[in-house]
Amino acid sequence: MFSWVADPESTKRKVEHGPVRTAYNSPMKVQATQWKQSIALLFLAGVFFMLIIFQAEFLWFGIHFEDLGRFLYRPAVIMLAPFRGFAILITPPHRAHFPVIQTALLCLMAPAVFFTAWRLARRFYPWRKPGRTTTGNHSISRRGFLALCGATPLSGAGVYGIYVEPERLRVARYTVPVADLPPALDGLRMVHVSDTHYGPFVTARYLREVMARINALTPDLIVLTGDYVHKTPRAIGSGIGILRELHATLGVVAVLGNHEHWEGVEACRERFREVGIPLLDNRRCFLTKQGIVDEERVGESLCLAGVGDLWEGQPSLKAALDGVAPGIPRLLLSHNPDFAEAGNDGYRVDLMLSGHTHGGQVRLPIIGAPCVPSRFGEKYAGGLCHGPWCPVLVSRGVGLAGLPIRLGVPPEIGLIQLRGHRP
Question: CB–CB of 356/317 below 8 Å?
Fold first, then answer.
């Protein structure tokens, strides 16, 4: 016969505190809680991602915080690019502007997509060898090792292309012979600047360094061939205003690019008037040893002409060059180098200066530049090119557009010396 004697201490605890209960949550309840936490964290990540995109594309940060904003924005917009690529099929952007609501939805969705892809990769492509625990031996599978070996150089190239090369400005030097060049202008030093693209990718701090570098070259003439702003009309004031810091002995002239038309062409023209730089879209002026004048002087002057942007500005060689004396040499500014293929209608052009293509921004061994915004491929990617009726000097640009990366195509300014010769 068995007897049971209650433990006095246990009985006392039950009386004072009630029966001892063991906490228990079902696996489904635990999983539901984890899902709620994951969804909340992914939503917060999406909001943060959206703020990073919007602060740069609408220039929310002031001048003092630009570098931080661009530092965060450049990799973020590259991560967003595949989503925008799919969204283009549904809602094409208007003049490179994506709808705000569409961008917000894509930003909120992106972290969930990346998280799901990571979970699937972990499930189907495990990094660790099967059967290994997280303690003890930390060896990884051969598949994981190979993936790590491939990802390391790609990551290094990505960091270099996003943060380093876009600001490694170089000076490209050219000597160009020009027939009938007045003796007083023989040896003229001209700096060619294009595609500064102030906006989400490019800071005012970097552009001020570029302006200082240009002025240090002590040019006689500075020619600007378009795309001074990017992504937002809020870039017009600073993007064009900073050009006021340029100084040349004889003067500065410019034409507009497609981005000025996209962000507000009249506001851009007004800003150029305020800065005091003449625009040569479908018009001309003349350069003498004394400076820029409106009337030609045969034997003493060089014609500086420009045309409107090929995509947006209705370029007209007739408006730019009609009536210029045959013996006067002339330079032509055209933002888009493809204009060289449009035909010259019999007008003489000694050298055309362009930008727009950025050299493709990425140039790979063997492959070359995968994407050059020109109907003629790499013909006008950059440098001194042979056009059908005149040489075309194409700048690889100062800034960034499309994606914030340069790899194998550093930004550049051109230093061109003009030399007279008899044809």
Answer: no
Cα gap 372→358, rounded to integer Å: 8
User: Which uninterrupted H or E stretch holds 417?
Assistant: strand 412-421
pLDDT: is 28 or 171 the higher one?
171
Distance CA 252, CA 423 (A): 28
C-beta of residue 393 within 8 angstroms of C-beta of residue 416: yes
b/e code 357-371 from CB counts within 10 Å (16+ = b): bbbbbbbeeeeebee
Q: What are the extents of the domains in the chain?
A: 29-124, 170-421
CATH of span 170-421: 3.60.21
Structural contact between residues 230 and 202, judged by C-beta atoms closer than 8 angstroms: yes
Q: Which residue has the higher pLDDT, 104 or 12?
A: 104
Range of weakest confidence among 38-42, 286-290, 394-398: 38-42
Give the containing element (helix H, strand E) for 293.
strand 291-293
Give the span between the Cα atoms of 373 and 310, in whole angstroms: 12
Closest by CA position to 189, among listed 204, 171, 210? 171
Helix axes 100-124, 66-88, angle to 10 degrees: 80
Give me the residue label for tokens 């740069």. 56
Say how far apart CA 190 and CA 218 lie, in whole Å: 9
